[in-house]
Write a sequence for this structure.
């Protein structure tokens, strides 16, 4: 997929359409700065522009890597390779750690047992319980209407 193709079927986004949530960036900046230091609005906007440009640079490089491998989906490995190609080798260790944590969180999420499985009841027992609750609710509603 080239840089000029749209992703949602509509016209491709222009650079003016691309941004990051200002409140989120402002919060991140304020958390990183000492309490007695403030960040001007223009500075925050400049940081946002730099972040957007960085993301654009990395994603464009990752897209080229993806195309060279005849892939249609940018994988995390493409991002890591793009970082290395662009001279951001010092970022790769932290990116790999975050990726590892993310994969572990995904595995843990899949292992979570549903409420249905936790209840220990059969589907028929759960349906009967639901009907009881509906009947009790209807009765309570009808008494308040009289």
């Amino acid at each position: 997929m080239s840089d000029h193709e749209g992703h949602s079927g509509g016209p491709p986004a222009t650079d003016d359409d691309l941004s990051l949530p200002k409140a989120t960036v402002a919060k991140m900046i304020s958390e990183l700065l000492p309490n007695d230091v403030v960040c001007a609005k223009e500075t925050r906007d400049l940081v946002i522009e730099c972040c957007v440009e960085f993301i654009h640079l990395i994603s464009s490089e990752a897209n080229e890597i993806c195309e060279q491998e005849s892939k249609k989906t940018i994988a995390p490995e493409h991002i890591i390779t793009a970082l290395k190609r662009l001279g951001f080798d010092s970022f790769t260790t932290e990116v790999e750690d975050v990726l590892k944590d993310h994969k572990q969180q995904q595995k843990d999420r899949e292992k979570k047992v549903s409420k249905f499985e936790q209840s220990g009841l059969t589907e028929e027992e759960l349906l009967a319980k639901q009907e009881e609750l509906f009947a009790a609710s209807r009765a309570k509603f009808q008494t308040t209407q009289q």
In short: Residues 1-7 have pLDDT under 50 and may be disordered. The longest helix spans residues 41-68. Residues 62 and 68 are 10 Å apart (CA to CA). The radius of gyration is 25 Å.
